Each structure stands twice: as structure tokens, then as C-alpha cells.
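Recall that a protein's primary structure is simply its ordered list of amino acids. Everything else, from secondary elements to tertiary packing, is in principle encoded there. The following example makes that idea concrete.
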Amino acid sequence: MIRILAPLFMTASLMAGFPSTQEALALAFPGAQFTRKEHWLTETQARRVKDLAGTPLPGLWQVAYEARKNGDLLGVAFIDSHRVRTLQETLLVAVAPDGHLLRVEVLAFREPQDYLAKEAWVRQFEGKKLDAELSLRGAIRPLSGSTLTANAMTDAARRALSLHRILYGEAK
């Protein structure tokens, strides 16, 4: 039964215009091999992530996908599911070994499509690092008519960068 449902879910995802997790990973890290890692954060680590990100974590269990090519770490991607207004959005946030954002991909968006950020807006996250400029008052342009989406995506990017710093350190 699982084999039957998986293709149906992927088809529904593609029909909505969103990539699957595997497709998003391939976009972020072309030609890489992926290892799924589960991390159980300590309370201290979670507090540090929250302090760095400026936004709380949804839980202590975090999943990361390590991307490697010829044994070299190309980066790490985190899956971030969060509420935008009243419904969920799920993003894949890819981070380079030195701690800058490589890519943000929307995997699911349950809010009305009018609130969905356009790809050009999302691409402004690329190359950003975890600092005070990674905010809607800094390097990220506001999203007219979709402020909650802009806030949610910015928070997700900050969480991923904070998780990367705590779990992987920079330039490891």
C-alpha cells in the first residue's frame, strides 16, 4: 500500500508545482549523494539555536540531509515546516559548509496561492549569512500582500542557518 500511495503523493506535489524533497535536494546540490541525518538537540543546543535565529524551534528533533560529492561535504539541507497564517508551509533550506544560504525551495504551501512568494523573491535568500541583515528590515525585501509568508520564510532561513552553526559549525 505504501508503494501505491508514494507515487500518488508525488504526483499531487508535482501538480501543485512544488518539487519533492529529492528533487529539491538535486536542485540545491546537483550530482551529490545524500545522507539523511536525525539530530536530537539538547535543551542547551535548542536555546542556542533560538537565540541565534531570533525565533523558536518547533521541536528538539531535527532532520538534515548531508550532500556529498566524491566524499566532500557540499552542504546541508534542513526541512522546515511552519505555520504561515493558519496553514502549513514546508521549505527545504540548503546551507553551504561556510554557513551561507545556497537555496530555499518551497516543498508545500497550504495557504491560498495568492500568499505564495514568487521564485524571484525567494532567490534573494541565496548567499545570505546569519546576521542582523537577514531580516525584512535588512537585506530581505518585504513581500507586499504576503507579509506573513515573508516573515515565515525569513524565520525558516534563520533557523536553518542557526541549526547549521550549532550542529555542523562553519567551514567543517
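Residues 18-168 form one domain. The chain has five helices and five strands.
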